[in-house]
Each structure stands twice: as structure tokens, then as C-alpha cells.
Amino acid sequence: MPAPSSSAILNTYLLKIELLDVENPRITRTLSCPANATFEDLHTAIQIAFGWANCHLHNFEVHPEAAPWSPTVLKISPDSADDSDDSDDDDPLPRESSEDYKLQTYFESPRFRDHELIYQYDFGDSWEHLITVLGRGDKEEYFFCVDGEGHSCAEDAGGPRGWEDVRDAYRKTSGDRDLREWYEKTCANGDPAGLKGEKLWRWDQDEINGNLMGLVEED
Fold first, then answer.
1. CA–CA separation, 143 vs 37, rounded Å?
2. How far apart are CA 186 and CA 101, in angstroms?
3. Measured between alpha carbons, how far is 80 from 97 in angstroms, rounded to an integer?
4. Strand runs (DSSP E) across the chain, as ranges?
5. pLDDT along the chain (219 residues), means of 10
6. Distances in whole angstroms, Cα of residue 57 to Cα of each of 46, 78, 134, 155, 171
């Protein structure tokens, strides 16, 4: 993560969010994010931008950058989350409430310079989204999606490997018909049109931005 400027508190962060371990195509979204937004607002924005159904637990974790399997130095999670099994009473993991912790507080903190920010969704499927600051800009009232690539992943597919199985069901002539039917008719965020051909690369920026409107209220 680029070191934030201490000379001024700017009003918008341009964040590139990449779903890890998914390729051909990758799934990314670039969001313009109000600095006064909370991390819970960011969670909702990511859910909208990536087409998730918001039906599983989530949190944000901070790690030293470029350190494989590095320890978590901060967890940002909802107040309602039950993380009692994740911590040691003698050495509790530092935590912040995602309902209260502001993007500006995190991104302008010298403590977290050169750290990696990960959004985790569905602790069973273990979807991890890497969040990178591309820049800062003028004040905006709402979240806004400015760029992206790749069709949304399927809920409850079993993680990146399971998503590959869903895609293979459409790519191969002898693909799994039951899996295709599950995705089109049962999956919480499935697409009745399926994923044949170029559909795997399609995403609807206008629909995303329509759903992002009004997500953050003015202070």
C-alpha cells in the first residue's frame, strides 16, 4: 500500500480490488471511495461491485506487505462478529469495529504504511480480495466504480477451485450439466443466462454504480 500523504487529508481514495487466485479472466473492480466512509460501507460497496449476495461472514485483515503467510496485525470486523476463537486472551489481536472505523483513519495512519489490506468474504470458501490504493482525489459523495474486469463469481462454489469447475462446465462440450443447472437456477447470485463464450468477461458498470448511489451519507 502506498504511503499516505501527511500534508493533507484528501477526500477520496481510488482503490483497486482484486479477487485473489482467480484468473482467465481476473476479477477486479476499481472504486472511488469517500474518505468519510466506514469499512462496513466499503464491505457493502465490494459486495455490490463484485456481485456477491452478502450471505456470509466477512472481515478485513492487515498484514505486513510482501510477506507470505505474514501475521495479521489488525482485524477490522463487524461488532456482531463472533471472533472469540481467533484470539489469545494473553495476546489479543488488535481489532477495530468496521461500523465505526473510517477509511481515512486507516489510510492516513503512518502505522500502516507499506502494509497489505485484505477483504475476506465467506470463511468457508475463503474468498480474499486484495485492496490497493491507486491514488487520491477530490471529494465525492458516494462510492463509484470506475473500472473493472471479469464476471462475478458464484456464491458457495467452493472457492477459486470450485469457481474453476463452474467455468469448466460451460467451456467444455461435455461439461457438468448439473453444475450448470445449479448455477443458473439455484446459486444465490447465479446468472440465468449462464457463462458461455464472452459472458464470462461481462460485468455491468452502470448497474453497479446505480446500486452504489446513496451508500454513504454526508457527515
1. 9
2. 36
3. 9
4. 12-19, 28-34, 58-64, 74-77, 95-97, 115-121, 127-137, 144-149
5. 49 96 96 96 98 97 78 91 51 88 95 94 97 90 95 97 95 87 96 92 96 77
6. 13, 9, 27, 12, 31
